[in-house]
Amino acid sequence: MLLGLLYFVAAAAAARLTRLEGGVACLWIANALLIAVLVLMRPQRWGAPVTACGIASLCATGLFGFGWAGAVPFMTINIGEVLIAAALLQRFGRRDAFESMRHLGVFVLAAGVAGPAAMAVPAGLVAKLLTGTALWPNAVNYFLGHALGALTFTPLFTMILVGDARRWVSAAGGRRLLEGLVLLIAIAAVSYGVFAQHRLPLLFLPILPITLATFRFGRLGAVASLMILTTIAGILTAHGMGPLRLIDASPIVHMRYLQFYLAATVLTILPVAADLGRRDRLYRKLQESEERFRLITEHASDIVMTTLPDGTIGYVSPSIVQLGGYDPLKLVGRRAIDMIAPSDHEHVRAEFLRALDAPETTVAFEYRAVTADGAERWFESNVRAMVGEDGVVDGVISVIRDIDRRKTMEVELARAAATDALTGLANRRAFATAFDRCLNQGTACGCVAVFDIDHFKRINDRYGHDAGDRVIQAFAEIALRHVREEDMVARLGGEEFGVILPGVEPAQAQEICERLRRALGAEAIEVGAGHTVSMTVSAGVAAFSAAQDRDAVMRAADVALYEAKGAGRDRLVLAA
């Protein structure tokens, strides 16, 4: 009932105030109200509001428009226009036309173009038949008047119906409400001042406060301002007032120029309001994201760092105080590479550039960094480039984790895997790896020696395994004292040991190993319970050169060792 009454008032006012020379109304806002209602409802429930507004249109046309002869045709035309616009908006648009530029475009095409255009010719034809006025001027007036009314008033009616206007008023403080009221009064005053006189062409003046209202109050400010301008300008121009009288033409031409002026203003302001709304939503999301980001980073154990593409630090989370000892505020503006251990500069720089070249991927890498006290610690970074709206990389975000404990454990595990537990010497695996590295690095020459403790089983049988272990440990201690720093001593298993002597000739190797053999034989080894034992060793020495096969060299040394044992032990044999 209320909807029908409001539609009747709007239709009657348009018919009474904006019809010129007996033609159609030049500004029609009643359909905007029904479009706003239908867009918010399921099509299955359109019957009641369409019926109410149809009856209201019938009465308004019969009483204030073309008379009862035109009531039914114009009712059909008005309702048809609304149904076309509402159906298109339901199918392709959104309730909020200002949600994006795309949805605003759909709204303009549906409510401002498709609906009025579909019914413009029928309206012009009916007006011609009823009044004898020309078809095309009526059709053009119908299209412009109905399009202008729909574009200007539908957004405002929608905001009122969904409660956006009420929520804005409730949320705004008294000062902001006063500011909005003063601005709207100023727009009304400026609009009246411009269109109540016909001496100066001041049509540009209302644009200034309307633009200000749009920037200050968004879509609500835009549609309220446009409604004020359209209403005042339409009524005053229809009554022969306003700067358009400066055009030497008929009132209908003045009204048509006004329609174009208002349409241009509406189509200028509404996209601005839509884009401002989009930016406002993005800004709010950005603020929320920033708050979440700071909440997470300020309580995270990992370091979060953002840098410019040139590596300059833009932000560091507070966790760097605990992990690196740095003041995060003092790091802003510094180069991130300055905190990396010099030995890892090239590695880190290469990974950073890789992240810049592939913004869609996350690059992970490990490196050593220098803490505030000068110590080096291991860190792992997960790095991803940040791309701006223009598609250009404008920074890099890194999540940095302290992995020093893990790396220390890895080193310890690797050392344990390569170390003989009893002697602390390298084990067979580490010996083989080092020997291969020596062969593959192109060392000009070198020798390898294999030692075996003579009659070791007798020591175990007579004094026990603890005594045997002590003898093996003594061999390791004595051997390390008699080889060079670059040589390697390893326990190959049981009582067998290997020595790599890189860069020596066989004669030099024989001299080194002979000195070691004599030192071992001269040592009295305490094995517990007041007992001491001495040991002798046999050894085989084989020369090697670059790119030789390791197994072949070791077989030659083993053959020489067996010759030494066969010749009576406690001696050294050089492989042939």
What would you say this structure looks like, in words?
It is a multi-pass membrane protein. With 576 residues, the chain is of the alpha+beta class. The protein folds into 4 domains: 161 residues; 137 residues, no CATH class; 110 residues, 2-Layer Sandwich (Beta-Lactamase), CATH 3.30.450.20; 156 residues, Reverse transcriptase/Diguanylate cyclase domain (Alpha-Beta Plaits, 2-Layer Sandwich). It is 60% helix and 14% strand. The strands form 3 sheets. The chain has a 5-stranded antiparallel sheet with strand order 2-1-5-4-3, with helices on both faces. Helix 1 runs parallel beside helix 3 and helix 2 packs parallel to helix 4. The longest helix is centred in the middle third of the chain and has 49 residues. It is rod-shaped, with a radius of gyration of 47 Å.
Q: Layout of helices and strands, plus pairs?
A:
Elements: H1 2-17, H2 30-39, H3 47-64, H4 68-92, H5 101-131, H6 135-162, H7 164-171, H8 174-195, H9 207-238, H10 251-299, E1 303-307, E2 313-316, H11 320-324, H12 328-331, H13 345-357, E3 363-370, E4 376-387, E5 393-402, H14 404-417, H15 428-440, E6 446-453, H16 456-463, H17 465-482, E7 488-493, E8 496-502, H18 506-522, E9 525-528, E10 531-533, E11 537-544, H19 550-566, E12 572-574
Parallel strand pairs: 11-12
Antiparallel strand pairs: 1-2, 1-5, 3-4, 4-5, 6-8, 6-11, 7-8, 9-10
Protein name: Diguanylate cyclase
Keywords: Cell membrane, Membrane, Transmembrane, Transmembrane helix
Domain PAC: 363-415
